[in-house]
Amino acid sequence: MNNNIRLHHLRAMTSGPALHTNHAYPIAEKQAYKFLRLSQCEEPDDIVEAIADLPRIRINLRNGLPVSGAADWTGRYWQILINGDDAPVRQRFSLAHEFKHIIDHPFVKADHYNTAPDGERQDHIESVCDYFAGCLLMPRPWLKRAWAGGTQDIGELARTFSVSRQAMKVRLDQTGLRPPTRRHTFGPGVSKGSRSPSRRFPYMRALPLTRPPMLQSLTIAGTTETWPNYRHGG
Length: 234
Hints:
Layout lengths: L6 H5 L9 H18 L8 H6 L4 E6 L6 E5 L4 E6 L4 H22 L11 H17 L2 H9 L5 H8 L3 H11 L21 H4 L34
Parallel strand pairs: 1-3
Antiparallel strand pairs: 2-3
Helix pairs in contact: 2-5, 4-5, 7-8
């Protein structure tokens, strides 16, 4: 994998004075795919390691957290705390969610999300972070290739991508691989006239899929530091 990727490569994809509600989701998807491409992730088990290898980012598992994940700038590096009591699939999703909070940090401070209706701004931010996590852990081209290859059972797909069954259900709805069974609280819908992912994201190659390892399989630094500020609860 390539460890030369920097956060500014992803932040540069955000343009304009504000992230309109309808624009934030496609930007998030493109950021996820650009990260996969620049970090040379070739299968799902590369994704967590690619985030952990980023400079000035440290990941710690912590039991007893009141939230699933949290991210904060210490003045020297970004620290991501993941709830050690959560299931491994939830830990992976929380890590990807918090990673998006880090990417968007300069724009949130600059009120780039102020186009969301009054009272819904924070919900919109969390929704976009959830959508990014789904795009990163279950890339549309990889998922569609697995589906076309005959893997259409939700449980089997969830195990292949190491996500929860519910996360897989939502992503299948988002990608149009199955008719939506209910309205979800995050992510855009998929129109029948949307272009194929291979045309929209030509740099996403068909890559082999294997079941990824759990988050604990990485060497994640332990810490005895206190965590005074839970900024995100994704």
